[in-house]
């Protein structure tokens, strides 16, 4: 057996270790101190949701949620989605293998047709490449990352967002080192579109600037350009060689008509723009948690358009591979099952009419009740606006009054989700608004 070290040798070793320890400079507790990683502010919307959940008042109203609710204030699983679930579950060939990097091919090809139109010349001329993404946010990020890496102009690259816009736009684009400005969009005076301010900003933007456009149901205002105004916007953008980045999260959900809600995108493509599109299936399929989305790159008509598309597709695949490797499959399967089945597609359009129709009814009811109460101000903007959200025109002080006195939760800028209203609470909310306008 090996002999144990003698007591004297152990003592010598301990002395040496003690000497070494005394010479070691203590390490800092963390490399991520407060001046390096400051505490980030809480996301306003998620903070609002948390405050609503903590509230125990039986009359509380959630108008901050960006998701559809039925007339009982419950999430609604579309009947057509339930049917697709059943078809997928009973498929004997169902497996859980990886998708290709670009995603489920049946899903991306159907998504092209949905957003661009089945007869789109861009599709026929093979000028479109599409990748399945992590819902609309993932599509925005993939597009922003691609532009950050490859888009070159004669001037500094600048992204323009509408004022206001979806708050996450700023983070997505700034995280890939794209600087941004804003263009006037919402008129506080008319509570409609500031078209003149919008056009003036486009005319003064540097050539090649990236303009983020909401295809329909503008978030957060609910204010959309008319078709004639879209034509004017496209005209100026073409003259100034501006690059459209179109965000479409509400096709079919806004008006109930897929073609009407996709009109602006198709017009820009018809005008020969090179552009990108971020497409989400969260709202119009109710697939919020499944994160089904698609990113489309459409190159301009030219003799080498197909070659350009192929090169772009190769680089997009590398970016996608490095970030998520392969997109998730289930939500894409659900959407693809519906989009590629004529019978289910027809039923989906009925489901869209159900959702958009209920939202429209709530707009009419809210406006009617405010006008019946004689609430100071004009309220036609409630029905003039479209989609899930409405900019009420309420001030931050009035918003906080509504929260404190009536347990009504909405964002501080006065934006409400119309989906949070129903036949049981719309009168309560109207009376609360009336009191807030008069007293706050």
UniProtKB/TrEMBL annotation:
Cofactor(s) recorded in Swiss-Prot or TrEMBL: pyridoxal 5'-phosphate
Residue stretches making up the Aminotransferase class I/classII large domain: 59-432
GO molecular function: L-aspartate:2-oxoglutarate aminotransferase activity; pyridoxal phosphate binding
Keywords: Aminotransferase, Pyridoxal phosphate, Transferase
One Gene Ontology term, aspect cellular component: cytosol
Bilayer-crossing regions: none
Pfam families xref list: Aminotran_1_2
Catalytic activity, EC: 2.6.1.1
Keyword Cell wall biogenesis/degradation: no
GO term, biological process aspect, one: aspartate biosynthetic process
Remaining remarks: In eukaryotes there are cytoplasmic, mitochondrial and chloroplastic isozymes.
Subunit (UniProt): Homodimer.
Protein name: Aspartate aminotransferase
């Amino acid at each position: 057996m090996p002999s144990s070290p003698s007591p004297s040798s152990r003592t010598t070793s301990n002395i040496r270790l003690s000497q070494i320890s005394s010479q070691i400079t203590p390490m800092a507790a963390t490399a991520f101190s407060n001046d390096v990683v400051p505490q980030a502010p809480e996301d306003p919307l998620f903070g609002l949701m948390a405050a609503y959940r903590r509230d125990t008042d039986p009359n509380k109203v959630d108008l901050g949620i960006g998701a559809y609710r039925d007339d009982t204030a419950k999430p609604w699983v579309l009947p057509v989605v339930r049917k697709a679930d059943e078809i997928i579950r009973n498929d004997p060939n169902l497996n859980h293998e990886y998708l290709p990097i670009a995603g489920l091919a049946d899903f991306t090809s159907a998504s092209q047709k949905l957003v661009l139109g089945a007869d789109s010349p861009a599709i026929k001329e093979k000028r479109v490449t599409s990748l399945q993404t992590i819902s609309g946010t993932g599509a925005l990020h993939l597009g922003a990352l691609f532009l950050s890496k490859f888009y070159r102009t004669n001037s500094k690259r600048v992204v323009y967002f509408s004022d206001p816009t979806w708050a996450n736009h700023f983070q997505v684009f700034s995280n890939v080192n794209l600087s941004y400005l804003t263009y006037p969009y919402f008129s506080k005076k008319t509570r409609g579109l500031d078209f003149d301010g919008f056009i003036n900003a486009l005319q003064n933007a540097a050539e090649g600037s990236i303009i983020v456009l909401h295809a329909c149901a503008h978030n957060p205002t609910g204010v959309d350009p008319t078709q004639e105004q879209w034509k004017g916007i496209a005209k100026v953008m073409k003259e100034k060689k501006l690059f459209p980045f179109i965000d479409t999260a509400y096709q079919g959900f806004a008006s109930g008509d897929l073609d009407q809600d996709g009109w602006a995108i198709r017009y820009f493509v018809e005008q020969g723009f090179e552009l990108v599109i971020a497409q989400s299936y969260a709202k119009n399929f109710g697939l919020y948690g499944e994160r089904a989305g698609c990113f489309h790159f459409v190159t301009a008509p030219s003799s080498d358009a197909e070659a350009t598309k192929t090169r772009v597709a190769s680089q997009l695949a590398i970016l996608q591979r490095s970030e998520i490797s392969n997109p998730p499959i289930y939500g894409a399967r659900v959407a693809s099952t519906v989009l590629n089945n004529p019978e289910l597609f027809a039923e989906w359009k009925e489901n869209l009419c159900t959702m958009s129709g209920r939202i429209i009814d709530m707009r009419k009811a809210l406006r009617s009740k405010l006008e019946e109460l004689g609430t100071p101000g004009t309220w036609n903007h409630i029905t003039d606006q479209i989609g899930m959200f409405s900019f009420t025109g309420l001030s931050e002080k009035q918003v906080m009054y509504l929260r404190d006195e009536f347990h009504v939760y909405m964002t501080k800028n006065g934006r409400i989700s119309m989906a949070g209203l129903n036949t049981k609470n719309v009168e309560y909310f109207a009376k609360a608004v009336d009191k807030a306008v008069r007293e706050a």
